[in-house]
TrEMBL record:
Recorded superkingdom: Bacteria
Keywords: Transferase
UniProt-recorded Gene Ontology molecular function terms: transferase activity
Annotated organism of origin: [Mycobacterium] fortunisiensis
InterPro entries to which the protein is assigned, alphabetical: CoA-transferase_III_domain (IPR050483), CoA-Trfase_fam_III (IPR003673)
Protein's name according to its UniProt entry: CoA transferase
Positions of the UniProt region annotated as Disordered: 740-760
GTP-binding is among the record's keywords: no
Length: 808
């Protein structure tokens, strides 16, 4: 059986993690990815986060992972004949992935590529986008975290220290995941009408979506930020008697259960006006003391019994040996170099991904590709017109809740699919309930900014599928749908008889996407999981924070990262169905997606014996790199303003030295190299602390940025709309609502040449807003629908469902 993208040709004109990961995902899907390199090769071939010595004839392990299954051709971008041949190669391809770090890409303007070859999907990955006031400004993944608000995230860190970024260059991986998904999305439209697309992806916008929790919508709708100060998750990553353990409370019930588990029933206050986090912080010291007296395994066993989210704390050394990942064969050997790497981020029944294949040596396939006959793809006729939405005509049943699942279905709705969001009145979507709106407020459940931000363009149907009537209607609805997406723990779907085999009986070509936290099998399969537990288990937390304390949980990326990977898996499944007519089950476990973007830890340890460690705001890609306090009182009345500076090249160091006035300490020749600057990081930090402390953030940015130095103000997340680049690209669209005031809503991290121009066409639905419309389509009469409402099977407000109503 062939892989879903067999016959699809992608030209890789990128360098760096983001482009390499995007094309790796496409290659795994079966695409023929041809990596075009200059004679000196992609700099990623020489990269090691630990600084391992890579032999002159060898490639770095991370490159060997990311380039697996690709072909490499080498050409001279200064040679006209080579560039003419490259143009012919592009003309015969289906897609191009382009980033400005590639030496070859610098000689090929993406706009020109798309103009001359309008059948192509040209996906560009840049820090800020191809145009706009910041399009030519220097940036690194680290400074983008600061601009996005991701360096603070959902209150990550502690107030008495600098904000702390998420470790591991997660923004690069996330941008790559989005680039792959958006390439596949617009491929679906190209299959329909032959017209390609220029997909202009902004890494900043990808970080806004992946590292923050819709803070602008929240602030604009409620008039207050989600959180105004930094504080650690409690209990979060905790110190047990014999090591670290992760515990999380995502609901009030889980907090109450944790109180009971630790022997403190007196902490339970069902009428408290404080959030779960605020209540937990009141008892942090006592809880930490109790945890330090327990063995980590005992804590996890207890927590599992209480159904409190829990996991070990993974890192590059221990994660491969965890029983769950061993049972699921979550890691495989690199086929060329033998180190350990993650398996693919999703699994299928039906189609097969391409098995792990070796990475190419530099120019290994040049002669082979040059000898092949290049047949240009058919140019589309006329100009693009009509429907520019890739997923028009696709019907999706969205049985998801909170953040991860909707992060998969929301892009489908923005790009044209009919998405039916299923809830019940006993258990509405959890994001309706987390805004802190008092129950005394009229229609309080409709006022959640998080629900609004994640569910535009969807329809709402409420069905209590714990009743036989509800399950019967649900089955009838499924028969009309192309896709079903769910993110319950596995036992829930199976208990109500809606597993994949059951769905195939209802519709023979159904595509089902299941998004459990830990997968459909293995020892942890039924464990509840939120973003932070996934981050803890996979190693994402391990690299976040300071070396002298337990790790901070990113508390963000675990969910949206799972959603965007599931979206790619879904599109591969749809392509398989298009080719074969077969039904497909996609298993897109949250933790598998997280293990992939944390891959560098396992790779560095297995290839070089190097255990990567958290180091505050320092990192392997730049030196100096840190967050420095600037002068100025913030909007909360605190002396708490910061800037991020990252020097990733010797030229940038020379520019920084000049901007500082060439002080004597900076003229030391030892600082002219990255190794020298890293060795003297303490000295550089000391001097930059003093220099920044007397200047405002705006002054620092205006002094350094025009000279080419990556710098950023550390933004409060709810101030994202104030960024000129974000406004220029219209990343936020104002959305009206029948209950709430209009508010800006984030879209997708791409600007498009051929539309659609508007992504939020309808506001998020009211609870049960489309009950009558959808049930009428199933053949129910007005009287039957009214009876369902009277019996509590359907409804438009949170409350008692049909099963419990019948039992009264």
């Amino acid at each position: 059986m062939t892989a879903p993208l067999d016959g699809y040709t992608v030209i890789d004109l990128s360098s760096g993690i983001a482009g390499a990961y995007a094309t790796r995902l496409l290659a795994d899907g079966g695409a023929d990815v041809i990596k075009v390199e200059a004679p000196e090769g992609d700099p990623l071939r020489r990269w090691s986060a630990s600084g391992a010595d890579i032999g002159t004839d060898a490639d770095g392990a991370l490159f060997a992972f990311l380039a697996g299954g690709k072909r490499s051709v080498a050409l001279d971008p200064g040679a006209p004949d080579d560039m003419r041949w490259l143009d012919g190669l592009v003309a015969a391809a289906d897609a191009v992935i382009w980033s400005p770090e590639s030496v070859v890409a610098q000689s090929v303007a993406p706009e020109d590529l798309f103009r001359r070859h309008p059948h192509l999907i040209v996906t560009t990955i840049t820090p800020f986008g191809l145009d706009g006031p910041w399009s030519d400004r220097a940036a690194t993944e680290f400074t983008l975290q600061a601009w996005s608000g991701g360096a603070i995230g959902i209150g990550r860190g502690v107030q008495d220290r600098a904000p702390v970024s998420i470790g591991g260059q997660v923004g690069e991986w996330l941008a790559g995941a989005y680039a792959a998904a958006m390439t596949l999305a617009f491929r679906a439209r190209a299959l329909r009408d032959g017209h390609g697309e220029l997909v202009d992806l902004s890494a900043l916008e990808a970080q806004i979506l992946g590292l923050t929790y819709y803070p602008v919508t929240y602030f604009e709708m409620l008039g207050r930020p989600w959180r105004s100060e930094r504080r650690p998750t409690v209990p979060g990553v905790a110190q047990a008697a014999d090591g670290l353990v992760a515990l999380g409370c995502g609901t009030a019930q889980q907090w109450w259960d944790l109180c009971a588990m630790s022997g403190h029933d007196e902490w339970i206050d069902e009428n408290s006006e404080l959030t779960i986090t605020e209540q937990a912080n009141l008892h942090a010291e006592e809880l930490d003391s109790w945890l330090r007296e327990q063995r980590a395994d005992d804590i996890r066993e207890l927590a599992t019994a209480f159904r409190i989210p829990t996991s070990p704390v993974g890192n590059g050394e221990n994660v491969t040996g965890m029983d769950h990942f061993v049972a699921r064969q979550s890691f495989v050997r690199n086929p060329r170099d033998g180190f350990t790497q993650p398996a693919a981020p999703y699994r299928f029944s039906g189609p097969e991904l391409r098995p792990p294949a070796p990475a190419p040596r530099l120019g290994e396939h040049t002669a082979q590709v040059r000898a092949a006959e290049l047949v240009p793809r058919t140019a589309p006729s006329g100009v693009p017109g009509g429907d520019r939405l890739p997923f028009s005509g696709l019907r999706v049943l969205d049985m998801t809740t909170f953040w991860a699942g909707p992060s998969c279905t929301h892009p489908l709705g923005m790009l044209g699919a009919e998405v039916i969001h299923l809830e019940s009145t006993p258990k509405p979507d959890g994001t309706r309930l987390i805004a802190g709106i008092p129950a005394t407020v009229e229609q309080w459940w409709e006022r959640s900014p998080i629900f609004s931000a994640l569910n535009t363009n969807k329809k709402s149907l409420t069905l209590d599928f714990q009743t036989e009537q509800g399950r019967d209607l649900l089955r009838r609805l499924i028969a009309t749908c192309d896709v079903v997406v769910e993110n319950f723990t596995p036992r829930v779907i199976e208990q109500i008889g809606l597993d994949f085999d059951s769905l195939r009986e209802l519709r023979e070509d159904i595509v089902m996407v299941r998004m459990p936290g830990f997968g459909l099998d293995g020892p942890w399969r039924d464990n509840p999981a939120f973003a932070y537990i996934i981050e803890d288990a996979s190693g994402l937390s391990w690299l976040t924070g300071y070396p002298d304390r337990t790790p901070f949980e990113p508390y963000s990326i675990g969910d949206p990262n799972a959603g965007i990977h599931a979206l790619s898996g879904l599109m591969l499944a749809l392509e398989h169905r298009r080719r074969t007519g077969e039904a497909v089950l996609v298993e897109a476990a949250m933790v598998d997606a997280a293990l992939n973007i944390a891959a560098e830890q396992v790779i560095e340890y297995s290839a070089y014996g190097a255990l990567l460690q958290r180091d505050g705001n320092r990192g392997p890609a730049a030196a100096p790199q840190n967050i420095y306090q600037s002068a100025g009182i913030d909007e909360f009345g605190r002396d708490d303003s910061w800037v991020a500076i990252a020097v990733s090249t010797d030229a940038q160091w020379a520019a920084l030295r000049s901007a500082l006035g060439e002080p004597q300490w900076a003229m030391d020749p030892q600082l002219d190299t990255a190794a020298g600057r890293r060795a003297h990081h303490e000295l550089i930090d000391e001097k930059l602390v003093a220099w920044c402390r007397t200047r405002s953030g705006d002054d620092i940015v205006e002094t350094l940025w025009p000279t080419g130095i990556p710098v950023a103000k550390v933004m409060q997340p709810h101030r994202q709309l104030e960024l000129p680049q974000v406004r220029f690209r219209r990343f936020f669209e104002h959305v009206g609502h029948p209950v709430n005031n209009p508010a800006p809503h984030s879209t997708l991290p791409v600007s498009l040449a051929n539309g659609p121009r508007t992504l939020h066409r309808h506001p998020a639905p009211l609870l049960g807003e489309h009950n009558h419309e959808l049930l009428t389509e199933l053949g129910l009469s007005d009287e039957e629908i009214a009876t369902l409402a009277e019996d509590g099977v359907i409804g438009t407000e949170p409350g008692v469902g049909g099963r419990r109503k019948a039992a009264r």
